[in-house]
Each structure stands twice: as structure tokens, then as C-alpha cells.
Predict the structure of NOA1 protein.
Amino acid sequence: VPSLSDPSVPSSGVSCSGCGAEMQCGDSGAPGFVPAEKYRSLLSEGPAALPGAVCQRCWALAHYGSALRLQLPPDEHRRVVSAALRRPPRHGRGPLLLYVLDVMELPDPVLPQLPALLGPDVPAAGVLVVGNKVDLLPADSRGHLGRLRQRVAEACALAGLRGGALVDIRLVSAKTGYGVEGLVSRLQRSWKCAGDVYLLGATNSGKSTLFNTLLRSDYCKSRAPDIIDRATVSPWPGTTLNLLKFPIINPTCDRIFRRQERLKDEATKTEDQLSSEEKKYLNQLKKQGYLVGEVGRTFQQQKSSAEVDFDPDVLSYSMDEDPIDPPKKHEEEREEFTHNEVKDARWCFDTPGIVKEDCVLNLLTEKEVKLVLPSHAIVPRTFILKPGMVLFLAALGRIDYLEGEKPAWFSVLASNLLPVHVTTLSNADTIYEKHAGQEFLKVPMGGEERMKEFPPLVPQDITLKGIGTTEAVADIKLSSAGWVAVTAHMEEELLLRAYTPKGTALVVREPPLLPHISTIRGARIPGTPAYRTKKPPSFVENLRTTGGR
């Protein structure tokens, strides 16, 4: 069997179109690795073949959601980002930083690191904060988005990001497109084409998804999406290794006018006027999120087919198969930018995700991460607990209701794939010992062997005072596994004990993110502490609703 790596072959000097790492076949544990045989075959196909290829890691991520273990310490991520930001301004003006945060992770653990990452020697022109993944959260009451924006503003102030440095705060869903057209308009109106733009954020904040969405929006030069391959999108932390970029379109008066005309025209449409393919795509997005928006293109004919998350291009082979011949289209000459198209271009860069320390995802396997990270609209699950009862969120979090006069409501907001189990205090330890690592608690998975190496749950005592039966007093955030909103009678004092795996952060979030979430529930299920779940309807922006809807 020929060796997969061959250190004698020099690195290519060409970046992987999925993660931006330099492609090489010398070290299978380093970024940009392509098996030696495939690497030589690509070189033999001519100079156009390699720039369209992806490394083995990106291919594995795209096809199997599996990340090959890479030797890339968190400090390396920070070094790449920091060095990029310290480049001298190319156009006499520092870059605009587009900081992407996951609203469910508030207060964002990486945001306080931003001032240090920038430092006094970074000539940044400002930070525009993008609160992402709003599509996953149910509306608990009127004005919930305004309240979410306020929470993001508070997190920015807490991190020392305020005044002139903070350009704006926008709420979006990079995945369903909600709010993205508004973000593009805001960027074109205020930043125009003044300098480069850098996307920054923690791993799993949806940064690469936003990069891909902007790549096929009016923010990107019209020919660019056909030339630039899209960033690898995967829940595995730190998937963007080096800097990927696309050229920003210059928003001339004529272009802005044409864009506004398109948006106005689209806003007059109803769902009934969409093509069957558009309807199908829209319904798919509605299943995935509560808030949906279409991202269109004014300056190029939109492809009618629904976008695929990732085009693996020429590396169409599996780990244990021989490489398959590349598709016919890659035998044609690969398109490249002309000198005139890029000589004065301003670029939008995607950067490596900054790894969150004290995060439960760092302890999990790829398969477990996929179960824990919500990919569809979260359906809240509410339980009424008396003192002496315990709630488990998989085997990743536990909340004991130790003392209180009356029952209280515990609303779980986490991936719909994670099980919630309620038991008594006297049975809780036995349940954990018996079922952690098994199907009953689901994550972690892998039985006794897995649990031997998994950190034990460690407790933290929490005292809360209720503010009424329709408003939660706080969220107990179980690292990145999800959170539990606690609602109690007015002035009712509760003593709780919450557990997360050792070395992960447990946060008491006051005020809660969705204070009225316990009201989004059905009838009580007889003989159980659970209520029937209720899924609020989805909302599509920039689409006229018909009378009956």
C-alpha cells in the first residue's frame, strides 16, 4: 500500500479552497494535507487543477462531518487572526471588523478578548457586531428581537466595546438568510468600499456560514462566487484555518438604486407567487428556523437550484476508495480573476474561529457535537418541579431543586435531539451512574469506556428569588449544551444546585434571554411533571403575507 504522505514533495503554495490552508502532502497531521497520490495526480492535471481542490480534512468535513485530528493549538488560531489584523492598511484606512456572535452563547465568552486581540497597534476603523442564530430561538413575547439586541448591546458594553468603536449591532440568521439583506444594505450605506472587512468570532458562531451567505449576496463582486469556492461549514470547532476572502462590490449610486428596486419588487410578492422550487426551499428553511429571509442577487442571474452547503470540487474520493475522476466541468479551464478586477479590490476575509475555553464542546466527539449544537428551531420543553426533584439535560448538565416553598417551572432550551429526564434527588446519582454514556442520556456516547475519560459533573449552588409565574428570573446556562430558564412565584426563594462537567463554564444569566418562555407551552401531561410542547410559527421577512396567514 503506498504511503499517504510524502515529505519529499514540496508544499504547493496554493491554498485549499475550503479552509485556506496551504496544500501539502508531507504531513498528514498538519493543515492542508492531501494524500500523496491524489496530490501528484492534481499536479499532473495542470496548473488549473490544484486551485480548485480541497484538502482531505475539508473533504471529510463536507462528506462525513468528521474532522481528522489536526495539530493546531488554540494559540495558533489567535496568532493567525492577530497577525492579519496588524497588516498595514492597504487603502489608507484600517479594516472594519464584523464580529459574529452566537446569541445563545450570551454573554459571549470571546467578546472580552476582542480589545486584547486588536491591541493599540491595530488600525481598525470600528466593529460591527452581528448577533447570529436568531432563527433558532422561539419568540417568547412581542418585541423579543428588540430585547435580544439589547442583551447583545449589554454584552458589548461589558466587554469594553462602546461609543465610536461600536459601529452597529445587527441580528441575523446566516443559515436561513434572515436579516442578511439588511446587513448588506447597512454595510454598503455606511462602509461603502472604504477598506477591507474581517469576519471574526468564536468557533461555531456561524462565521463561515455568514461568509458563504455574503459570498452569494450583493456584497460580493458578481463574478466572484463562480471563482471562489465556499468556506467549509461544519460544527467542528476551528474549521477555517487560514484566511479565505472574496472581493467586495463597489456600491455605486446606480447599483444601490437597482438593488433597492429588486428588494421593493420582492417585498410585493406573496408565497403563492413563488415557483414550486422556491416554495420547497422556503418550507425547508421554515422547518429549520423561526425566522427566514431570502438572500438574492441583483447583478447576476440567480441559480435556480437550492444552494448546497459545500461543493467538494475535485476531491471526490472517500477515505478508503481510489480517487474518482473529477467531474467534466473541471476539465475546462478554471476561471480566474483578471488583474483589473482585483488590483484595487477591497476584500472580505473569513478568519479562523477563536476557540472557546471552558466549553463543553471541546470535550465531545464530532458525532456528539452534532447532537448538541442545535441545527433546527428549538422547541422549548417546560417542566414543573417540586423541591427534591432533579432535571438532567443528557449527561452534560443537571439541576437539583433543593429548597423552596412552592413548585417552580424549568424551561429547557437546547438541541431538540438532547433528552431531558426528570427524577427525584434520591434516584439521581444512580441514574447518572447507570445511564451516562448510554442511549437513555445519549451524550456522551460510548459506554463505560467513554465515561472513564469524561470529566465528572461538578456542582455550584444557586439562590434565586421569583418575580412571577409568567416571567423567568434567570437562565442557568450549562456551558454550550443549552440552558434552563427558571420561573418561580413572586418573592419565592429557591435554592438550586447545578452541575456541568469539570472544567466547563456554568453561567447564571440574569436577566434571562427569553423571560416569558415558560408561557410557550401546551397542556400539562397528566401524571408527569412535563407540559406538552408548542412550536410557534415561522416568519418570513420581505414576503407579503396573504389574507389567510
